[in-house]
Design a protein that fits this description.
This protein has 140 residues and is an alpha+beta fold. The protein contains five helices and three strands; from the N terminus they run H-E-H-H-H-E-E-H. Helix 1 (14-31) packs across helix 2 and helix 1 (14-31) packs across helix 4. The longest helix is centred in the last third of the chain and has 22 residues, at 118-139.
Length: 140
Amino acid sequence: MNHKIGYNKLNRDAAHRKAMIRNQVSVLFKQEKIVTTKAKALETRRAAERLITRAKVDSVHNRRIVSSRVYGEDVVAKLFTDIAPRFKERNGGYTRIIKLGNRANDAASLVVLELVGQKADEKKTEREKRKSQRKAKKQA
């Protein structure tokens, strides 16, 4: 039975697994979207959501903890100044996983792991503004 297993080992030793998750979280915060396998995405999501929750409160202690789990000071700065304030009112669920299908060579299920946020909402509002401008032109 597979009871009380807290995480997926991903067929890697501990150091490799921690480094891989740390790298994926760093890239996720830097680019706000990554394409990876479903198993890796689930573990990366878990780490990323914990770090975003930690980054909501900007303190020296939280910055040190986040910087120990993320590569790059620029990523830490972006997390505290840009990403975490977006999710101030949200109590979790900062990421979404979208299925892409299977990879050709090994049939691994690929997914997109991305941050839920205002970037997509801003695009929608821009589209709505353009539509309303077009309607105003047609009516005039």
